[in-house]
């Protein structure tokens, strides 16, 4: 088998897995008890294809959680958490995260098994978030006495509420601006 053929087969396999994971997100978000067969049908692949790629339903769910976590980590990295000014990084990361979380709500809502790839990625995302908040604190955007773990948890809650609540059809940039404004200024009167 030539290198081009092998690459083509790998690309086909990757597309197949991606189609299965995207279908799993849609199907399981609608019916968390959906079968592998229902996912295969939604993905437009044979039942044998899904079983060849994933040993069982749990393996599919774990792959889904890992894939979504990787996409979330990429969304955070795309916000340039280490190099962009903290306020810019916070806005970019928030808008990016909102897009990924809305597309992969089921997978990202799953509790990550301790030690799983998804768990490790989510822990790293938490450390990155705290590092950005620490940079914002150094820039005097956050009170020097603020507990950054608490600030991070509030930030996560604001993101969650904006995804689950009625966001008035606002785009991710508008929602990100609201979230960051609320995180940094609360609901008190402006000076």
CATH superfamily of the largest domain: Tetracycline Repressor, domain 2
Category from helices, strands and their pairing: mainly alpha
Determine the fraction of residues in helical runs and give it as a percent range.
over 70%
- Number of separate domains: 2
CATH architecture verdict of the largest domain: Orthogonal Bundle
N→C terminal distance: 70 Å
- Major sheet, described briefly? none
Q: Determine the oligomeric state from the structure.
A: single chain
What pattern of helices and strands is seen along the backbone?
HHHHHHHHH
- DSSP strand tally: 0
Given as residue ranges, the uncertain stretches (5+ residues, pLDDT < 50) are: none
pLDDT averaged residue by residue: 90
What coarse outline follows from CA principal-axis ratios? elongated
Report the CATH C-level class of the largest domain: Mainly Alpha
Number of distinct helices: 9
At CATH level 3, the topology of the largest domain is: Tetracycline Repressor, domain 2
Relative strand content: under 5%
* Rg measurement, Å: 19 Å
Short description:
It is built from 9 helices and no strands.
Describe the structure in your own words.
This protein is mainly α. The chain has two domains: 1-54; 61-191, Tetracycline Repressor, domain 2 (Orthogonal Bundle), CATH 1.10.357. Helices cover 74% and strands 0% of the residues. The protein has nine helices and no strands. It has helices at residues 3-30, 36-43, 47-53, 57-78, 86-103, 105-109, 117-138, 148-164, 172-185. Helix 1 crosses helix 4 (57-78). It is elongated. The model has no long low-confidence stretch (mean pLDDT 90).
């Amino acid at each position: 088998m030539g290198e081009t053929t092998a690459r083509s087969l790998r690309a086909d396999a990757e597309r197949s897995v991606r189609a299965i994971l995207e279908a799993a997100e849609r199907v399981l978000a609608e019916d968390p008890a959906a079968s592998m067969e229902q996912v295969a049908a939604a993905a437009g692949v044979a039942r044998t294809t899904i079983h060849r790629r994933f040993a069982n339903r749990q393996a599919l769910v774990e792959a889904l959680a890992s894939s979504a976590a990787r996409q979330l980590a990429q969304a955070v990295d795309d916000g340039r958490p280490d190099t962009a000014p903290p306020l810019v990084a916070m806005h970019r990361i928030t808008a990016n995260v909102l897009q990924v979380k809305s597309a992969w709500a089921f997978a990202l809502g799953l509790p990550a098994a301790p030690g799983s790839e998804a768990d490790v990625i989510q822990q790293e995302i938490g450390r990155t978030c705290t590092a950005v908040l620490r940079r914002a604190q150094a820039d005097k955007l956050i009170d020097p006495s603020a507990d950054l773990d608490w600030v991070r948890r509030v930030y996560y809650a604001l993101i969650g509420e904006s995804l689950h609540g009625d966001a008035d059809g606002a785009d991710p940039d508008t929602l990100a601006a609201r979230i960051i404004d609320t995180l940094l200024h609360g609901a008190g009167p402006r000076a």
